[in-house]
Amino acid sequence: MFLDGISAVVLTMAIIEPMIRQAGFDMIWFGIFLVIVVEMAQITPPVGFNLFVLQGMANKDMGYIAKKCISIIFINDSCCNTSCNFSRNCFVDARTND
Fold first, then answer.
1. What is the residue range of 50's domain?
2. DSSP 93
3. Which of 21, 26, 45, 61 fits a disulfide with 66 by CB distance 3.0 to 4.6 angstroms?
4. How many domains does the chain divide into?
């Protein structure tokens, strides 16, 4: 059985959210980061849920679909790295830097 991205976020945020706040992360930036990472998880082989959807729609084998998704995985990875490295305080809450 597969668990889609939003279900995984809803199930885990009740546990993770207090830890994220206690660590001093800005919740807006963490939410953006979380969406990017969940999106990458949806298309990353071998268990990317969206790959199975694309396979059913395109009638191609999984290897072909996975090879075509590599560029999108690199784009999402660079977006994630850019958001982490763009500012040195990207995830740190501005209230803690007074």
1. 5-89
2. -
3. 45
4. 1
